[in-house]
């Protein structure tokens, strides 16, 4: 799979907190679909779908989108969203990337949680199930909770997956060379923490990254691998409203990231906020282009 689909939202505006699509043939240059209009709109719950995350079922080839049930534009503000927000995630599913079922909402947040933010998932081959994880504020502190599901309908009892001595949100995971690499946003410093483990649910150890230590004001980390084997880490430069930037490494976890030159990539006309990138086939790329162009 050498092509890519980027699902994202665009900001706190009337239709900004819905799901938008962009596609790419190389992971560097993205083309906005549907004339810059949302592809999927949530009309349930908080009537917003922020931080959309794409994941493919390796057995059925079905693709799911899971998203944050939140709308700030017409909502009650960030404090309310953290203390008395939705405990649901918004879900769509498809067999062909153009005909989507949903949205539907599933409650995953623990009792007492003030929110459920930026849900993501990774397939656990040993359990033949998806580990879904998200940030929740519980007793005044943001931590990452997780739960297993086989079908994105029924979810096991949630458990604490990431907890630090400060608030953390926006966790993402990539698997490479027998190890799991976990990136998480430190809310105190607005920097990204990188860790690794031999097990998906196990002890993670921090990896020092000079560039991540110096890179503040970012969130929404995502990792994907392009055709030549290079790993890309994209982060949303939210503090300066600059959209996404790309960092790259030839060996995830072994060589530090370096910043990709800005003239070597283009995320399209729309300034993109927290989203995810999924590898797709050439046929899927052409189908998306024909359907949404």
Q: Could you explain how this protein is built, in words?
A:
The chain is mainly β and 293 residues long. The chain has one domain (3-292): 5 Propeller (Tachylectin-2, Chain A). The protein has helices spanning 78-83, 210-214, 282-292, and strands at residues 3-9, 20-24, 30-32, 50-56, 63-68, 88-94, 100-107, 117-124, 129-138, 141-149, 159-162, 168-176, 179-186, 191-197, 205-206, 219-225, 231-236, 244-249, 258-259, 273-280. The strands form five sheets. Strands 3-2-1-20 form a four-stranded antiparallel sheet. A four-stranded antiparallel sheet has the order 4-5-6-7, with no helix packed on it. A four-stranded antiparallel sheet has the order 8-9-10-11, with no helix packed on it. A hairpin with a 5-residue loop joins strand 16 (219-225) and strand 17 (231-236). The longest helix is centred in the C-terminal third of the chain and has 11 residues, at 282-292. The mean pLDDT is 97.
């Amino acid at each position: 799979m050498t092509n890519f689909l980027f699902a994202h939202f665009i900001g706190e505006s009337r239709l900004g907190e819905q799901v938008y699509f962009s596609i790419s043939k190389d992971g560097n240059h993205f083309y906005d679909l549907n004339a810059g209009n949302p592809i999927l709109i949530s009309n349930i719950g908080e009537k917003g779908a922020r931080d959309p995350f794409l994941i493919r079922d390796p057995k059925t080839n079905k693709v799911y989108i899971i998203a944050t049930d939140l709308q700030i534009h017409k909502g009650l503000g960030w404090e309310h969203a953290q203390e008395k927000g939705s405990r649901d995630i918004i879900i769509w599913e498809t067999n062909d990337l153009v005909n989507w079922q949903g949205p539907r909402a599933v409650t995953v947040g623990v009792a007492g949680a003030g929110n459920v933010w930026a849900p993501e998932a990774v397939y656990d081959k040993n359990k033949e199930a998806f580990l879904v994880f998200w940030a929740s504020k519980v007793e005044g502190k943001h931590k990452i909770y997780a739960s297993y599901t086989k079908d994105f309908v029924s979810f096991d009892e949630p458990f604490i997956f990431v907890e630090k001595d400060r608030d953390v949100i926006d966790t993402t995971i990539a698997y490479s060379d027998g190890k799991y690499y976990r990136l998480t946003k430190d809310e105190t410093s607005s920097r990204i923490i990188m860790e690794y483990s031999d097990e998906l649910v196990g002890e993670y150890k921090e990896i020092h990254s000079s560039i991540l230590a110096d890179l503040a004001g970012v969130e929404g980390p995502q990792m994907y691998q392009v055709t030549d084997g290079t790993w890309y880490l994209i982060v949303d430069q939210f503090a300066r409203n600059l959209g996404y930037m790309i960092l790259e490494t030839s060996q995830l976890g072994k060589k530090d990231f370096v910043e990709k030159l800005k003239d070597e990539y283009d995320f399209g006309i729309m300034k993109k906020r927290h989203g995810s990138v999924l590898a797709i086939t050439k046929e899927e790329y052409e189908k998306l282009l024909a359907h949404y162009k």
